[in-house]
Design goal:
Layout lengths: L1 E7 L5 E7 L5 H21 L6 E4 L2 E5 L5 H21 L3 E4 L1
Parallel strand pairs: 1-5
Antiparallel strand pairs: 1-2, 2-4, 3-4
């Protein structure tokens, strides 16, 4: 099971996310991996931020130190994609947004 937790601040802005686990289903793993890694790259490139992150086998944690409009768009788009993945692969992926 892949568990995705979106982090927010008191103003309800996205401040990062944590993904952990394995789906034991290749399509679900690949989809979550592609979206999360693309979001991380987008934060680094388009939100112009030094984004602390940690990656290990079956684990990715990303922090957004200074939420801005670009980071909210990137992470909001990631959530929209993840919601579609959960609709298709809900038995393998859980999203807490």
């Amino acid at each position: 099971m892949i568990t995705i937790t979106m982090h927010r601040d008191k103003k309800h802005r996205y401040t990062g996310f944590t993904i952990s686990g394995h789906a034991d289903y290749d399509e679900a793993c690949a989809a979550v991996s592609a979206l999360s890694q693309t979001a991380l790259l987008g934060l680094m490139q388009y939100a112009s931020q030094d984004v602390p992150y940690e990656v290990n086998d079956g684990f990715l944690s990303v922090q957004v130190p200074k939420p801005c409009e670009a980071s909210q768009i990137i992470l909001g788009t990631m959530v929209a994609g993840l919601e579609q993945i959960v609709r298709q692969y809900g038995e393998y992926v859980v999203l807490d947004s």
